[in-house]
Specification:
This protein has helices at about 20-35, 60-70, 105-115, 130-135, 225, 235-245, 270-280, 285-300, 320-335, 335-355, 355-360, 365-375, 380-390, 395-415, and strands at about 70-75, 90-95, 120-125, 135-145, 170-175, 185-190, 200-210, 210-215, 255-260. By secondary structure, the chain is α/β, with parallel strands linked by helices. The longest helix has 20 residues, at about 285-300.
């Protein structure tokens, strides 16, 4: 045999070599990291129009600017509506597109406060109890119109992209469902787009009782990203709305109260509280609660116990007929003819004498003598019974005693002793 030469090992392909694969993978990771959009607070952050939020979609800019203009800013986090006991005529309630539903009772308390002299800054992006009560909705959109007297010298350099690609403020218009009030004042207008040149109202104010209301149908009007761009003039319009709400009363309304409860900063309803309210307040919930309690009681009754119940001790007793048969056999074995005769005689007397105490008090000899005197035909039977009571008799004579007692009973039931 001749040994063959080993074949040379095949080298790795070029596309699986580490010096080729690792740079490709590294470049791919860097490219994905650069192209993947990252959420940025203020652009893709919390969309709530809240004075607590400093991001681009919040409303902290409105609160801080109002403080600089002399307003006393208050954030109401734990109460959903003004209290009936609060003083009226000094507060402006800012309800900015609430995310939590507002109840009819809360809307009623807001409107009562406004009628009594308070102001209301209402921003809505959907139907709620306040907008329905005031008959407000929104219509087609337009571009925010700058007033002629606004400053046009603002050219702030800002590298943050605006909310709208064309760099203009696009807002919804205000729609009056039940007709616009005659005394309303247009605080911000929209320019029509395309062929539609009829201006719409971006914000309007009107009187309600002794108070005032400013309605804005688009929350984008007061967002931080809109107010901080001075070239749009939204900040000037917002302050003019607050100034209009501050005036017109017996005294200036200097307190600006932000409703943060309906923004979700208050005590939100919990699943446990909602479930407990359903189980107690709703008929179906109460029925389910009763079924659950009944199941728990059944489970407790069927569950094993640490101390099992002890069955009561039962003493077995013979049947009365079995006792008679047993006594008869016992008497027969010992030859107790006198006892048998006495038992039979006492039973006869109990049946015949009845419940008369005088009859029970007479002796056996007296009763036998009375029977013999009343019915001479049973004299032999009386003699046999009298002898069986005094002395023992044979088994055959005991049978005759039983027959004699039957005849005596028949005689006693037909005659009176």
């Amino acid at each position: 045999m001749t040994g063959g030469t080993a074949a040379p090992l095949r080298g790795l392909d070029w596309w699986v070599r580490p010096r080729v694969v690792l740079p490709i993978v590294g470049a791919f990771v860097v490219l994905v990291a650069l192209l993947t959009p990252q959420p940025e607070l203020g652009r893709m952050g919390d969309p709530r129009l809240s004075s607590h939020l400093a991001g681009g979609l919040g409303a902290r800019a409105l609160a801080e600017t109002a403080e600089r203009f002399g307003f006393d800013v208050v954030r109401r986090d734990s109460v959903g509506a003004p209290s009936p006991s609060d003083a009226r005529g000094t507060a402006i309630h800012a309800v900015l597109a609430p995310v939590l539903p507002m109840t009819g009772e809360e809307a009623h308390r807001y409107l009562d406060a406004v009628r009594a002299g308070d102001g209301l800054l209402l921003v809505f992006d959907g139907r709620n109890a306040l907008s329905d009560s005031l008959g407000l909705w929104r219509t087609r959109g337009g571009i925010l119109y700058r007033m002629p007297d606004d400053s046009t010298d603002c050219h702030r350099r800002d590298f943050m992209p605006p909310l709208w690609p064309d760099g203009k403020v696009h807002l919804y218009g205000l729609r009056w469902v039940r007709g616009a009030p005659r005394d309303r004042i247009v605080l911000a207008a929209l320019q029509g787009q395309g062929r539609d040149t009829v201006p719409d109202e971006a914000a309007a104010g009107f009187a309600l009782g002794r108070g005032r209301v400013v309605a804005i149908p688009d929350p984008d009007f007061l967002r931080n990203d809109v107010l901080r761009r001075c070239e749009w003039g939204a900040d000037v319009l917002a302050m003019r709305m607050l100034e209009w709400l501050r005036a017109g009363g017996d005294r200036p309304r200097t307190a600006l109260v932000f409703d943060e409860y309906h923004q979700g900063f208050g005590r939100a309803p919990s699943a446990l509280g909602t479930s407990a309210h359903f189980l107690v307040a709703h008929p179906i919930g109460r029925a389910l609660l009763m079924v659950a309690l009944a199941g728990l009681i059944l489970l407790a009754a069927a569950a094993p116990r640490p101390l099992p119940p002890v069955d009561p001790a039962r003493i077995e007793r013979r049947d009365p007929l079995e006792q008679v048969d047993a006594l008869a056999h016992a008497y027969e074995q010992v030859g107790a003819t006198r006892t048998i005769t006495l038992r039979l005689w006492r039973g006869l007397r109990a049946r015949v004498d009845g419940a008369s105490p005088l009859a029970r008090g007479r002796s056996d000899e007296a009763v036998l003598a009375a029977i013999e005197a009343a019915d001479p035909a049973v004299r032999d039977d009386v003699t046999l019974v009298r002898r069986a009571l005094r002395e023992s008799v044979t088994t055959r004579e005991l049978s005759d005693v039983g027959a004699a007692l039957r005849r005596l009973e028949a005689s006693l039931t037909t005659t009176s002793v």
